[in-house]
Amino acid sequence: MTAFIDISQHQIDMGEVDEVRACLLKPWGFRELDRGLLFSIAQTCLHALHKVPWNDYNAQHYNGRVVTVEDVIFLPDLPPVPKPYRSWPEAFIMIFGGLQECEYEPKEQKLRYVVEHTYQPDSVDPNNPKIVFEIKGVIPTLVDAKKYRAVAEQNGVHIIFILQEKGIICPWSRPRKDGTRMTQEEWISKEGFEYCYQGEEESFRATDKYKKLVATFGK
């Protein structure tokens, strides 16, 4: 028996879809298909996607909304998107819509962008504003780790971490061959920063190493 998907009077013969699946999965392979069949498949997929309650779906999948099992929203099981496109709306617009004469992802048009952020240190040495303090329990992500590196490089500052606990493993670090993982102390030292532990701030600032940093760093 031939299976059909019937949505708002748009039908897909799944037997035909199975026959052309290889063409859909091959980059630009959809060009080998009957254009009317591809149009019918694309239209039906778009109708299926229009029926998704997107605000509720996005809240569940991106905002962490907790729901019961019965209320979980799943996307419809659709035929594979024609490669190289990444979604049926994208494919429809480029193949049948208003961008048919436009090149898809032209390589010469890769555009660089920089998102500017600000960083507020927890404190700064009163005698050298280039020495900043970061009081830290954990550096949670690699993005955060890269942030400190970028702050130091782009602003010419030296970060001293005051760690809450000893031997905290960086959550984003990968296991080494011996099974161990990088600690925050190891990462800080690797990056050329300094650290001490909570309760040691006064003694750390009394060391010759720290005094030399204050007297010479950035000057």
Give an account of the 3D structure.
This protein is α/β, with parallel strands linked by helices and 219 residues long. Helices cover 37% and strands 14% of the residues. The chain is built from eight helices and six strands; from the N terminus they run E-E-H-H-H-H-E-E-H-E-H-E-H-H. Strands 3-4-5-6 form a four-stranded mixed beta sheet. A two-stranded antiparallel ribbon has the order 1-2. A hairpin with a 2-residue loop joins strand 1 and strand 2. The protein is elongated. The N and C termini lie far apart (81 Å).
Oligomer: single chain
Radius of gyration computed on alpha carbons: 28 Å
Low confidence ranges: 1-9
Q: State the helicity in percent bands.
A: 25-40%
Count the E strands. Answer: 6
Q: Numbering strands along the chain, what is their spatial order in the largest sheet? A: 3-4-5-6
Q: What class do helices, strands and sheet pairing give?
A: alpha/beta
What is the first-to-last residue Cα distance? Answer: 81 Å
Helix and strand succession? EEHHHHEEHEHEHH
Mean pLDDT, as a whole number? Answer: 88
SS field, number of helical segments: 8
- As a percent range, the share of strand residues is 5-15%
Shape: elongated
Quick take:
With 219 residues, this protein is an alpha/beta fold. 37% of the residues lie in helices and 14% in strands.
Distinctive features:
alpha/beta; 219 residues; 6 strands; four-stranded mixed sheet; single chain; two-stranded antiparallel ribbon
What layout of secondary structure does this protein have?
Elements: E1 4-7, E2 10-13, H1 14-25, H2 35-50, H3 54-62, H4 88-95, E3 123-125, E4 128-136, H5 142-155, E5 158-163, H6 184-190, E6 194-197, H7 201-205, H8 208-216
Parallel strand pairs: 4-5, 5-6
Antiparallel strand pairs: 1-2, 3-4
